[in-house]
């Protein structure tokens, strides 16, 4: 059963759906969405169990893809280009493979259609270990997270999911579902697409300092997406759109506008 996704829109023109990664939300894409919105009608969505979108026990990519399908159909977009980062990139790939008629062009940011050995469960555990009942200020949560998550930029990213209402703090992401389904999130349902592929224009954008898109992944990328090209942003890591937004936007717009 699909979930009604929340998010925001920017700009006018042909439709471009933007999907964030694990622990993220649509608002992570504010800066990039405004830039893309100069030429396209951007729909930046909160994925299920993230942002302001509803919660679900299901974190399968088929389920996430169905949410996006429902958004495209319910809002009368017809056909849209789809841009997804990390977890959102996997959901975008599955949408394109299951419903190619809905996707005009596909852009996948720093992820491949493969299962990964590494896991983000340590971040989920760190967030769940915080005793929010004793917290009166955001800084206290940052302090509690510091021992398990020593990297300040990562803590800052995770803390974007902390909300306060009437002085009571809570996490707006469904940590229980993310913990229970982490193997699905880090995996990819390759067996579902043994004979399937998406033949339309596809762009994979990788960060040079990231190991999420490796040379060993290229064969699988081209098997499922035979019209894919792969570009690398020099000096960028996994959060390439945040680290180098100007370069990222230039690459995306060049692809969408059909530049060689």
Automatic annotation (TrEMBL):
Residues annotated as domain AB hydrolase-1: 15-244
One Pfam family linked to the record: Abhydrolase_1
Keyword Membrane recorded: no
Hydrolase recorded as keyword: yes
Domain of life: Bacteria
GO molecular function: hydrolase activity
Keyword entries, A-Z: Hydrolase
Protein name per UniProt: Alpha/beta hydrolase
Lineage: Bacteria, Pseudomonadati, Pseudomonadota, Alphaproteobacteria, Rhodospirillales
């Amino acid at each position: 059963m699909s979930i009604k996704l929340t998010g925001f829109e920017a700009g006018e023109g042909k439709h471009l759906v933007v999907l964030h990664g694990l622990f993220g939300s649509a608002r992570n894409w504010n800066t990039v969405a405004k830039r893309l919105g100069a030429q396209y009608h951007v729909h930046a969505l909160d994925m299920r169990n993230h942002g302001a979108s509803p919660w679900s026990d299901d974190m399968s990519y088929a389920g996430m893809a169905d949410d996006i399908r429902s958004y495209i159909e319910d809002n009368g977009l017809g056909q849209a280009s789809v841009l997804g980062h990390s977890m959102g990139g996997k959901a975008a790939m599955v949408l394109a493979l299951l419903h190619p008629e809905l996707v005009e062009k596909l852009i996948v940011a720093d992820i491949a259609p493969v299962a990964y050995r590494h896991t983000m469960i340590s971040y989920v555990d760190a967030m769940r270990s915080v005793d929010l009942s004793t917290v009166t200020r955001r800084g206290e949560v940052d302090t509690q997270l510091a021992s398990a998550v020593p990297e300040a930029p990562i803590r800052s990213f995770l803390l974007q999911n902390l909300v306060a209402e009437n002085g009571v703090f809570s996490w707006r992401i469904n940590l229980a579902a993310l913990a229970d389904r982490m193997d699905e999130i880090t995996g990819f349902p390759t067996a579902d697409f043994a004979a399937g592929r998406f033949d339309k224009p596809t762009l994979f954008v990788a960060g040079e300092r990231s190991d999420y898109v490796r040379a060993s992944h290229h064969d699988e990328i081209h098997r499922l997406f035979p019209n894919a090209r792969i570009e690398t942003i020099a000096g960028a890591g996994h959060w390439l759109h945040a680290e180098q937004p100007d370069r990222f936007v230039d690459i995306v717009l060049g692809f969408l506008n059909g530049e060689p």
